[in-house]
């Protein structure tokens, strides 16, 4: 037995040694029968999903509202979540898509001048169930060693739980492999976006003199990506995930942006790959992809994507940019990756993870097309990678010439 193996390990059946403590109002049951008792937060009810962890120390509201977490329950490894409450600005989308959240300690009274609601009330308002009092170190080690499991959170204030039924629900959940979730979180109609990034003095301001027009394909786009594009002088038209290439080109864009998003890129690719392939026939058109957008671009170019053991989710991941030889600290949230050995000859690997050497960026050798696996909009996270939005802008400026 490895020293870090969790003491609750039991496979296949409910861990009968794990007695319900007095006062427990919630439980996390994994598909293999591991049981974690705790206190319920947010909405009463049950949620089944893949259980992943995020190591960021700040930005829980941005993480909880990142649409890429659809189909996932997020374990926060940082113990104190909720202390600054929630507000109306630090959101990546209005309605969160994650299925639930797992915390180490109970939520305290919010202490921040911007807070409008405490996290518990906010979770309830979005019908999200959460659990606190979980030994998140044990759970995180278990995910690290065994990969992200499927699990079920149940929050019942009466303290009555059918553990076997919860385990069966978790085991029956099909898993993210092969799941297209972008269609569930994309916008329903074409909209305009011109709000810029947050400024301490001015807050979010509208863009006044746009220089470029970007069509952003919304597979579950984070707002800070759209804000970052606007801050580079781009008027952004946001289109639904299933928009065709000719509909996109009818907007006469200077460049096309492929957004982040949830689920398996190969499943999303059914409609997105032909769209990107058709865009690629327009040799002058700048294209920029982030995360799911990166994976879809790689698939459209003939590369493969695979599910990772546990993925990358945090705000301190070092990435090397081979085009400058600089290392940047990045914000990440992905569970699939581009198989770098499958990249065709006309595609160059531009970025790698310095944690595990996995692919983090590509560009075409003969076109103004590039993408990254991580999150340069950094919401939450370090700002090192903002230069990528400028790189996209420079490609659009170059095309104009
Ligand atoms: N943030 C994202 O766009 C995630 C992409 C994809 N759903 C993955 O998990 O790898």
Automatic annotation (TrEMBL):
Active site: residue positions: 291 (nucleophile), 375, 377
Binding site residues for L-glutamine: 68, 261, 263, 292, 295, 333, 335-336
Taxonomic superkingdom: Bacteria
Keywords: Amino-acid biosynthesis, Arginine biosynthesis, ATP-binding, Glutamine amidotransferase, Ligase, Nucleotide-binding, Pyrimidine biosynthesis
InterPro entries in alphabetical order: Anth_synth/Amidotransfase, CarbamoylP_synth_ssu, CarbamoylP_synth_ssu_N, CarbP_synth_ssu_N_sf, Class_I_gatase-like, CPSase_GATase1, GATASE
Family matches, as PROSITE patterns: GATASE_TYPE_1
Listed pathway(s): Pyrimidine metabolism; UMP biosynthesis via de novo pathway; (S)-dihydroorotate from bicarbonate: step 1/3; Amino-acid biosynthesis; L-arginine biosynthesis; carbamoyl phosphate from bicarbonate: step 1/1
Record GO terms (molecular function): carbamoyl-phosphate synthase (glutamine-hydrolyzing) activity
Leader sequence residues: none
CDD domains per record: GATase1_CPSase
SMART domains recorded: CPSase_sm_chain
Function: Small subunit of the glutamine-dependent carbamoyl phosphate synthetase (CPSase). CPSase catalyzes the formation of carbamoyl phosphate from the ammonia moiety of glutamine, carbonate, and phosphate donated by ATP, constituting the first step of 2 biosynthetic pathways, one leading to arginine and/or urea and the other to pyrimidine nucleotides. The small subunit (glutamine amidotransferase) binds and cleaves glutamine to supply the large subunit with the substrate ammonia.
Family classification: Belongs to the CarA family.
Protein's name in the database: Carbamoyl phosphate synthase small chain
Gene: carA
């Amino acid at each position: 037995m490895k020293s870090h193996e969790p003491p609750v390990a039991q496979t296949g059946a409910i861990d009968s040694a794990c007695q319900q403590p007095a006062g427990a109002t919630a439980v996390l049951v994994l598909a293999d029968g591991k049981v974690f008792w705790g206190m319920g937060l947010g909405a009463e009810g049950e949620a089944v999903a893949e259980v992943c962890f995020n190591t960021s120390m700040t930005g829980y509201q941005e993480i909880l509202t990142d649409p890429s977490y659809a189909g996932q329950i997020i374990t926060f490894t940082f113990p104190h979540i909720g202390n600054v409450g929630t507000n109306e600005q630090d959101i990546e989308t209005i309605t969160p898509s994650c299925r639930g959240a797992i915390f180490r300690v109970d939520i305290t009274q919010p202490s921040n001048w911007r807070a409008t609601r405490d996290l518990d009330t906010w979770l309830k308002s979005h019908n999200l169930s959460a659990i606190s009092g979980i030994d998140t170190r044990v759970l995180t080690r278990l995910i690290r060693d065994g990969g992200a499991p499927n699990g079920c959170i149940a929050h019942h204030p009466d303290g009555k739980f059918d553990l076997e039924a919860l385990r069966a629900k978790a085991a029956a959940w099909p898993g993210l492999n092969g799941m297209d979730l972008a269609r569930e979180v994309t916008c329903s109609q074409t909209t305009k976006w011109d709000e810029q990034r947050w400024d301490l003095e001015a807050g979010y301001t509208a863009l006044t003199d746009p220089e470029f027009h970007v069509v952003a394909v919304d597979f579950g786009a984070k707002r800070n990506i759209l804000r970052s594009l606007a801050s580079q002088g781009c008027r952004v038209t946001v289109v639904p995930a299933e928009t065709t290439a000719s509909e996109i080109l009818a907007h006469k864009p200077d460049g096309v942006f492929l957004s982040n998003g949830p689920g398996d890129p190969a499943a999303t690719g059914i409609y997105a790959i032909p769209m990107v392939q058709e865009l690629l026939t327009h040799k002058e058109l700048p294209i920029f992809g982030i995360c799911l957008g990166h994976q879809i671009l790689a698939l459209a170019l003939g590369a493969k994507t695979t599910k990772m053991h546990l993925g990358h989710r945090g705000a301190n991941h070092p990435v090397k940019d081979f085009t400058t030889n600089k290392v940047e600290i990045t914000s990440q949230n992905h569970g699939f990756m581009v198989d770098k050995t499958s990249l065709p000859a006309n595609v160059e690997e531009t970025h790698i993870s310095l944690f595990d050497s996995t692919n983090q960026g590509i560009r075409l050798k003969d076109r103004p097309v590039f993408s990254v696996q991580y999150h340069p909009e950094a919401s939450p996270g370090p700002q090192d990678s903002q230069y990528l939005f400028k790189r996209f802008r420079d490609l659009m400026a170059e095309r104009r010439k």
